[in-house]
Amino acid sequence: MTLADRLKEAMKERGLTQSALAKEADMAQSMIWKLISGKAAKTGKLVDIAKVLGVRPEWLSDGSGDKYQMDDSDIAIMHYSHSMAVKIYDEENETNEVFMVPVFSESPKDLASCRAYRITQNTGCSEAPEGTLIVIDKLVEAANNDLVYARIGKNYSVYRYVQGGSMDFLSVDDSRVPLIAVSPNVEIIGVIVYLFREMKRRR
């Protein structure tokens, strides 16, 4: 298992996207992408990343030792979290509900630019199936491979953002589905910075 594999595993467990991790670790999102894609094998911010993800830096770096630290000091860090209220929207309509978002940082970032949405249909992206609750940040600029919430015509859904040189695109997991060019007819509501879903459906 490589650093990229361990990083993706820990991010999935925490429900953090590239944008959210970059924001919490105070890093450039491009560096997170390089680590996940394997284009970079080390970073001076490894300890900060591990702290946000709640894992041991040694495990994240080279896979040595336990994934989680069990001494008192690190347990305190793992359980040090804040919850902040994010308003839930139905398309562009604000509801009277809020969702408490756990912020895994000693310096919680302002979530005033964030909104929460319930996904009520199949999106075509395995990371955000029907039933997922997503939190988007309207001020974060989309980077390659980010999950975004977008409106095409009257339809709202989750897509993966693909940078393509002179033109950017939206995609889903099925490669047979054509890429959708980002144009004036496509509105990017925001980049998904948190997502919450059941890992296994109850029967």
Explained architecture:
- By secondary structure, the chain is α+β, with helices and mostly antiparallel strands.
- The protein folds into 2 domains: 3-75, lambda repressor-like DNA-binding domains (434 Repressor (Amino-terminal Domain), Orthogonal Bundle), CATH 1.10.260; 83-196, Umud Fragment, subunit A (Ribbon).
- 25% of the residues lie in helices and 32% in strands.
- The chain contains 6 helices and 9 strands.
- The protein has helices spanning 3-14, 18-25, 29-37, 46-53, 57-62, 72-78, and strands at residues 82-90, 93-103, 114-118, 133-137, 147-152, 155-164, 167-171, 180-181, 186-196.
- A 9-stranded mixed beta sheet has the order 2-1-3-4-9-5-6-7-8, covered by helices on one side.
- Strand 5 and strand 6 (155-164) form a beta hairpin.
- Helix 2 (18-25) crosses helix 3 (29-37) and helix 2 packs across helix 4.
- The radius of gyration is 17 Å and the shape is globular.
- The model is unreliable at 72-81 (pLDDT under 50).
